[in-house]
Amino acid sequence: MAEQSPTERSEDTPVAAAAAAETSAPAQVTAAGDADMPAEAAEDDAAEKPTRGRPRKTAARKTRQVALTLTVTGSQDGADWQAEVVHGTTRVVPQLSVSAAAVVAAAKDLHPDIAEAIDGILETAREQHRTRVEQLQAELAAAQEALANLDGDSQA
């Protein structure tokens, strides 16, 4: 008789064949988590044990909400900004002056839509200020020219 390797000999015995079948077939895990019990038996057990009464309800979690209102108001020209914080009906922080840069930074941190709206308002205010600066520079140039003409007349 030819010599067999140890692995070939173990496959010939009935116990080894049954062990190989168990390891090659995946175990079925039921809802109860019992891997040894077939799925059909687990379904029979579930059908035999009806639940009594209503199923238990879990307590709904109530999330605590804090009602804080931050109000930021600005002047028409965009130069003066005020902020206040209200908790319920109590004014926690009264009207405080804040810079336009702080308003822009806060808006960017909150949401892009808020930042876009405030940037639009501030850009309009910047354009109004540029127009006013140009007008004042023209008036200043005219006043300086008039002063120079007056000084030139007095030296003559």
Question: If you had to describe this structure to a student in words, what would you say it looks like?
Answer:
- There is one protein chain.
- By secondary structure, the protein is an alpha+beta fold.
- The protein has a domain at 68-155.
- It has helices at residues 6-12, 14-24, 39-48, 100-110, 112-155; strands at 68-74, 81-87, 90-98.
- A three-stranded antiparallel β-sheet has the order 1-2-3.
- The radius of gyration is 42 Å and the shape is rod-shaped.
- The chain starts with 5 loop residues before the first helix and ends with a helix.
- Mean pLDDT is 75; it is low at 7-11 and 13-35.
- This is DUF6319 family protein.
- Residues 1-64 are annotated as: Disordered.
- It comes from Fodinicola feengrottensis.
- Residues 52-64 have a biased composition (Basic residues).
- InterPro entries: DUF6319.
- Low-confidence spans: 7-11, 13-35
Note the main sheet.
3 strands, antiparallel
- Quote the distance from N terminus to C terminus: 141 Å
Estimated radius of gyration? 42 Å
Order of helices and strands: HHHEEEHH
Number of helices: 5
Helical/strand content category: alpha+beta
The pLDDT mean sits at 75
Proportion of strand residues: 5-15%
InterPro entries: DUF6319
Region (Disordered): 1-64
Biased composition (Basic and acidic residues): 1-12
Protein name: DUF6319 family protein
Describe this structure in a few short sentences:
The chain contains five helices and three strands; from the N terminus they run αααβββαα. The chain is of the alpha+beta class and 156 residues long.
